[in-house]
Write a structure and sequence with these properties.
Strand order of the largest sheet: 2-1-5-8
Number of domains: 1
Helix content: 10-25%
Radius of gyration: 14 Å
Shape: globular
Structural class: mainly beta
Order of helices and strands: EEEHEEEEE
Strand content: 35-45%
Length: 68
């Protein structure tokens, strides 16, 4: 994941997500979770999946969060 356009956090997959399993008809451990320690203010977070096929990355899109 990038935070404010800088690589910041490696978040391994394998977290149980029954909702994703039901919606996508996949295995039970298709989620991911991580913690980013951010200073107060607005930040842009951009999660993406790495190694879905040889050399490929898949973006999940970016979003903005405000830390108070």
């Amino acid at each position: 994941m990038t935070v404010d356009h800088k690589y910041t956090l490696n978040v391994p997959s394998g977290v149980s997500r029954p909702d994703v399993q039901k919606a996508r008809h996949t295995g039970p451990k298709q989620g991911f979770a991580g913690v980013a320690h951010l200073k107060a203010g607005k930040h842009t977070l951009c999660p993406y999946a790495v190694n879905i096929g040889p050399g490929q990355q898949t973006s999940f899109g970016c979003f903005t969060v405000t830390v108070k």
